[in-house]
Amino acid sequence: MRKSAVVASVVAAGIVVAPAAQATAAAKPVAVCPGTELHKDGLPKPLKNQLGEQAGTLRLWYSSANGGTNCAKVTSDGAPARSISVSIWTSGGTPVTDSGPYHEYAGGVVLTGTAGKCIYLSGNLSLGSGSVNQFRASAGPVACG
Q1: Do residues 125 and 55 lie in contact, with contact meaning Cβ atoms separated by under 8 Å?
Q2: Can you tell me the distance from the alpha carbon of 53 to that of 137, in angstroms, rounded to the nearest whole number?
Q3: What average pLDDT does the segment 112-135 reach?
Q4: C-beta atoms surrounding 119 within 10 Å
Q5: Which of 52, 88, 138, 144 could form a disulfide with 122 if both were Cys (CB 3.0 to 4.6 A apart)?
Q6: How many angstroms separate the CA atoms of 10 and 19, rounded?
Q7: Virtual torsion, Cα 103, 32, 24, 1, nearest 10 deg
Q8: pLDDT tens track for 23-47
């Protein structure tokens, strides 16, 4: 698994100024999310359409490894989805997304270095065309600290 990090510093008048640590994303989705699935802050959260019908679930895991690791996944409730997507990010961070013509799940998308940060996540599942076949959920800020 590759990790990327942005490290920058500015030297001015003998003072080194560095930005706060940023969460980093895994290079590609993982099949099994590390850590423990969270059951708080309204999670796991159902993906619902405009009629309130459910077709999937937005899930979040946490592990203390690597300065805090969060992993998000969207799972289908059994209906053969045409496409599924999931995104995860921290406040002010860039979303990490996995999306495609998946039928059972999208993700897990992983962020490390999340200790002390609030997590935001969203998920979408499409069973076909038309708004009644679009199922969505979002959460955040959650798992702060």
Answers
A1: yes
A2: 12
A3: 95
A4: 26
A5: 138
A6: 9
A7: -110
A8: 666 657 899 999 999 999 999 999 9
